[in-house]
Design a protein that fits this description.
With about 500 residues, the chain is α/β, with parallel strands linked by helices. Helices cover about 50% and strands about 10% of the residues. The chain is built from 15 helices and 14 strands.
Length: about 500
Amino acid sequence: MIKDNMIMIGKAGDKEIYLNPAQLNRHGFIAGASGTGKTVTLKVIAESLSELGVPTVIADIKGDLTGMIVPGDEDGIRERWQSMGLESYDVRKYPVHFFDIYQKAGHPIRAVMQQMGPMMLSRIMDLTDAQQGVLNIIFRVAQDMELDIIDLKDLQAMTLYVGEHYKDYTSKYGNISKQSVGAIQRKLLELETEGGDKFFGEPALDIDDWMVTEKGLGVMNMIECDELFQHPLLYSTFMLWMLDELYDRLPEVGDVEKPKIAFFFDEAHLLFDGAPKQLLQQIEQTVRLIRSKGVCVFFITQNPMDIPNSVLAQLSHRIQHSLRAYTPSEIKNVKSAANAFRANPEFDTFEMITALKTGQALVSALDEDGAPTIVQKTKILPPHSSMKVADPNRVAYAIETDSIYGKYERTLDAQSAFEDLPEIYAAEEEMKAKADAAKQAEKEEEARRKAEERAAAKKANEKSWEEKLARKASNKLQNELVNMGVRSAKKLLKNLLK
């Protein structure tokens, strides 16, 4: 509810509790056990932002936020706002664009893989330094070969190609081990199994399509996550890509009167449970830096301890619904949650967290000077839109009649690495065949030359032998003639002496 350009989210007794739009880029969280009213609080804030003309992106894990397109139950709302002493409270619907990575319950969401780059992919896939280095080489080889890596099968094909040609690239780009290539292939297969083959591709989502208003209301971009949240690797990939894309696209604005866009990540623990250290560092850095772009981020989770301390420290707007505290571990978590608030001398924060009723929350926000306010026990306002799940036919109609229908529905499969590499393989095979043929021809020519040399040598040897025999025969003949002459002379001399 907007009042004097402030977001009124509830009342603490007679005191109205507000969120200051100018401070929302300091981020926040909404925490509490199941059934304590977190979804209502999310709806109230998102509706108010829409009324301020601020678009939102909402990860709808349970599918219970589709009611934004339907006016609320007036009787139920009237009863609640009258109990809070409000003069008037109307019901209305809001403009919603539905999206779904799995392309079942909304416009497809796609990203081009080479725009995400090897650094972010390495962190998402939890690659080692050596494996990250090899992934960098794979992208560099593709760039040098003028091959586009658009979708998952492009990167899989390039990884296979570089792995097969690792000896050719090691001297130029650095060491490429078969083990690192194999690890990357396994991670890409895991990403494909989770649905990465649908997320990576074209046409890629244009973030500008999220930064829109309709009739003065900020559009709510609802991300269907009923299936997505079951695949934490892809969920983290999608979440980090969104924030990084916004960080790259939006200019530095510093402090603003209201956010440029706000993100709500329901069941936030899914982003952090078992997440690799590199990914957590990337999320922390992105959340910290993106506030200067005028972006607001809210994490919704059951317990604030589900959020890493490095990220939790950056969440200045804190809305805590009831938590249960029966076991030692639960008691410890509640104490930690209580210590995160600026104490109110009127009550014990720890005791109050366990005593809150459904629809009540402890709220501490930033005042106009950026200082956290004293925590207040707050009764949360009812939303203007329906709390029920919208009829699927109504959702389908909303999708087919919104302003971007048809822009992303058809998948494009442009010529890229996957399509180009078979031609490269064929060209390499042809070159290899020609090289083999040339080598064989050279070998045959060498054999022919050697055969000719052997024949010539044999012939020369035979001629030499004949000449030797002739000389020998000539010498023998000469000797015989000499001998004959001697004998004849002796015989003649003997006859003369008689």
